[in-house]
Amino acid sequence: MDPQMDSPRHLPSPAALAACLDHTLLRPDACAADIERLCAQAVRHGFKAVCVNPWHLPLAVRCLRGTAVLPITVAGFPLGASQTLIKAREAGLAVEQGAAEVDMVLNIGALKDRELALVRQDMAEVVRACGPVLVKVILETCLLTDAEKELACRLAVDAGAGFVKTSTGFGPGGATEADVRLLRRVVGPDIGVKASGGVRTLGEALRMLDAGADRIGASASVQMIAELNTGGGA
């Protein structure tokens, strides 16, 4: 078992874990063959979604057509510092091209400057541009105080987001159990929580789920399923 795991817990089935995993490839050097492989892996293992950069979204949509795996992409990624008009248009274009969900990045600097109306509008415009498509707001929790995380969560919910998400994976830190618990406490049971950034092992994924995450964003999804299939490494 993962040496960082606490006392053994009930392990989910591979299918149940796969249904919580967004199989992710957001590296800037990813090429078409990498995306095709990512999608094939997601279909083979029954992952909830694949998450790719906007440039690769049309390819992912084609690869996943006729399957249950959701093609998702990002907006304002990874800094969150795009103009709202651009961020909303990027998200809207993604929906036009077949995105089933959009993960947008919070305007972090505006939040820290307490420009709360701007932060809320930034999220609300993306939500509006996406119509019925689910929007997740990436907070980049490693850059925020706990008070700022709480505030960002409340603004995201008020703006109509369906999920809050910990991290881009490109910041100086990633998801932590403490942050997942905080996000879950603030948004309540009706808004999703996605743990992403640095979740690389089965034990880490299980701890995030125990802390209150609904989804895990990970590039190591296949390895997690392999570990689970061998009894959690025990």
Give an overview in words.
The chain has 234 residues and is α/β, with parallel strands linked by helices. It is built from ten helices and eight strands. The longest helix has 15 residues.
What gap, in angstroms, lies between the N and C termini? 4 Å
Q: How much helicity do the residues have?
A: 40-55%
Please outline the major beta sheet: 8 strands, parallel, barrel
Could you state the order of secondary-structure elements as H and E? HEHEHEHEHHEHEHEHEH
CATH topology of the domain at 76-229: TIM Barrel
| Share of residues in strands | 15-25%
Query: Any idea of the CATH class of the domain at 76-229?
Result: Alpha Beta
Which segments are poorly predicted (pLDDT under 50) over 5 or more consecutive residues?
A: 1-8
Which CATH-level-2 architecture of the domain at 76-229? Alpha-Beta Barrel
The count of helical stretches stands at 10
Helix-strand makeup class? alpha/beta
**CATH homology-level superfamily of the domain at 76-229:** Aldolase class I
Query: In which order are the strands of the major sheet placed?
Result: 1-2-3-4-5-6-7-8
Mean pLDDT: 95
- The gyration radius over C-alpha positions equals 17 Å
The global form is globular
Number of strands: 8
Task: Give short descriptive properties of this protein.
10 helices, globular, 8-stranded parallel beta barrel, TIM Barrel, single chain, 234 residues, 8 strands, alpha/beta
Q: Could you provide a short overview of the structure?
A:
The chain is 44% helix and 16% strand. With 234 residues, the chain is of the alpha/beta class. The longest helix is centred in the middle third of the chain and has 15 residues, at 116-130.
